[in-house]
């Protein structure tokens, strides 16, 4: 069992009380979320043709309206200082719709655990399975309720530049602090196309570029990153190609976050990364904070967490974290296909790993940390919602 963390610690009761107090002070209307004068995009929506200078000018006005207290440069600088960003899970109701009450409890526990930012609707949050209406709604909700407590980074990238531009405009209009932008996948493009694609979305506001060749099948060349880094809205890169790549960037002044939890400790302490955009922090935020924000390197904690990290990634993300949060009672055992839960044997392996780490370090459903033995027939797999 691991020793207790440094830093923040809140009991489940305190977390829930804080959530209730927060919700009482907020009002929920389409106007307050930013939708009144701005149509929500759909995955097939189109946008008006504008040149980049006109688009940037229009967005500067929108950004100023929705982020009154901070300039773009101030937000870029703030993003660069984040060491622990959670790629937050999106929980579902049994109907398959987004379960906002459970989502809010998950976010509250991230805040209590000392997480500094959230990626909303990323791969872990299954943005790829959302309509743009759902996507922008969740960004708006998170920004409205939690924007004072942590940075909200909306995953508004797409393999279509048109959709990325439209969704990014909408995301900033409803209050997100920064955008996460992936390179076009499947329909891959040239180096010149990459520059034009990223240039179009960088005009809107603070941006983290995401390089994950295992998913996109295209590695963003370092030369492209160095060129993009000249843009004032470029905050940095989420890099999944290892710590040597990160070291090359950081020694040349490019801010990086590791996209690999098992490499994140060394990425920060040895390769100069700002931190990590993490999956594991969904289930153990305080331990990930200690790993990334402790006063000195902690190789023992790194090694203690490796079995958990490897279990979470035994199948493609987000299968592991979805299964874990269902076992912890923090999400209904509902999966949008094509994702399906771990089998019984693998779930039991995870239970032993979490018990070895110590259940007091994990998020819970408000009734004390415990692991539920979820049966195969309790999982709901949906092909429509």
Task: Please characterize this protein's 3D structure.
By secondary structure, this protein is α/β, with parallel strands linked by helices. It has a domain at about 10-25 and about 55-300: TIM Barrel, CATH 3.20.20. The protein has helices at about 10-25, 50-65, 70-80, 100-110, 130-145, 160-175, 190-200, 215, 220-230, 245-250, 260-270, 285-295, 300-310, 320-325, 345-355; strands at about 85, 115-120, 150-155, 180, 205-210, 235-240, 255-260, 275-280, 335, 380. The chain has an 8-stranded parallel β-barrel with strand order 1-2-3-4-5-6-7-8, surrounded by 7 helices. It has a two-stranded parallel ribbon with strand order 9-10. Helix 13 runs antiparallel to helix 15. The longest helix is centred in the N-terminal third of the chain and has 15 residues, at about 50-65. The chain is globular.
Give the second-level CATH assignment, the architecture of one domain: Alpha-Beta Barrel
Q: Please, what is the CATH homologous superfamily of one domain?
A: Aldolase class I
| Overall CATH class of one domain | Alpha Beta
Largest sheet: 8 strands, parallel, barrel
Instruction: Measure the end-to-end span.
Output: 40 Å
Please tell me the overall pLDDT. 89
Q: β content, as a range?
A: 5-15%
* Strand order across the largest sheet: 1-2-3-4-5-6-7-8
Round the Cα radius of gyration to an integer and report it: 20 Å
How many β-strand stretches? Answer: 10
Based on CA inertia axes, which overall geometry fits?
globular
Q: What's the CATH topology name of one domain?
A: TIM Barrel
By DSSP (H or I, 4+ residues per run), the number of helices equals: 15
Which stretches are low in confidence, meaning pLDDT under 50 for 5 or more residues running? 4-9, 27-42, 44-50
Keywords: Amino-acid biosynthesis, Diaminopimelate biosynthesis, Lyase, Lysine biosynthesis, Schiff base
Pfam family, one: DHDPS
Family: Belongs to the DapA family.
Catalytic activity: L-aspartate 4-semialdehyde + pyruvate = (2S,4S)-4-hydroxy-2,3,4,5-tetrahydrodipicolinate + H2O + H(+)
């Amino acid at each position: 069992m691991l020793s207790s963390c440094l830093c923040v610690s809140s009991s489940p009761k305190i977390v829930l009380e804080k959530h209730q107090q927060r919700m009482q002070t907020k009002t929920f209307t389409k106007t307050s979320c930013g939708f009144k004068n701005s149509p929500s995009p759909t995955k097939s929506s189109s946008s008006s043709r504008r040149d980049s200078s006109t688009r940037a000018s229009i967005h500067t006005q929108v950004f100023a309206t929705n982020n009154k207290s901070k300039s773009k440069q101030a937000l870029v600088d703030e993003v660069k200082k984040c060491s622990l960003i959670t790629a937050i899970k999106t929980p579902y109701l049994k109907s398959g719709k987004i379960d906002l009450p459970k989502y809010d409890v998950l976010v509250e526990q991230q805040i209590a655990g000392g997480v500094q930012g959230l990626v909303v609707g990323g791969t872990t949050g299954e943005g790829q399975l959302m309509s743009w209406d759902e996507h922008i709604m969740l960004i708006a909700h998170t920004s409205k309720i939690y924007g004072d407590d942590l940075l909200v980074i909306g995953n508004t990238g797409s393999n279509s530049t048109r959709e990325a531009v439209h969704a990014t405009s909408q995301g900033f209009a409803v209050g997100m602090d920064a955008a996460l932008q992936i390179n076009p996948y499947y329909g891959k493009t040239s180096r010149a196309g990459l520059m034009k694609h990223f240039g179009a979305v960088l005009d809107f506001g603070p941006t983290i570029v995401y390089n994950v060749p295992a998913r996109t099948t295209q590695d963003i060349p370092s030369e492209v990153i160095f060129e993009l880094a000249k843009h004032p809205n470029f905050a940095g890169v989420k890099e999944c190609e290892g710590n040597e790549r990160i070291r090359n960037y950081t020694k040349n002044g490019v801010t990086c976050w590791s996209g690999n939890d098992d490499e994140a400790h060394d990425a920060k302490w040895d390769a100069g990364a700002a931190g990590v955009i993490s999956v594991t922090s969904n289930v153990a935020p305080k331990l990930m904070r200690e790993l990334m924000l402790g006063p000195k390197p902690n190789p023992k904690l790194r090694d203690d967490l490796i079995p958990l990290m490897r279990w979470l990634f035994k199948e493609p993300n987000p299968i592991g974290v979805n299964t874990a949060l269902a076992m912890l009672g923090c999400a209904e055992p509902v999966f949008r296909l094509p994702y399906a839960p771990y089998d019984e044997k693998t779930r039991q392996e995870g239970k032993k790993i979490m018990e070895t780490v110590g259940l007091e370090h994990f998020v819970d459903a408000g009734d004390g940390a415990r692991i539920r033995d979820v049966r195969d027939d309790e999982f709901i797999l949906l092909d429509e919602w």
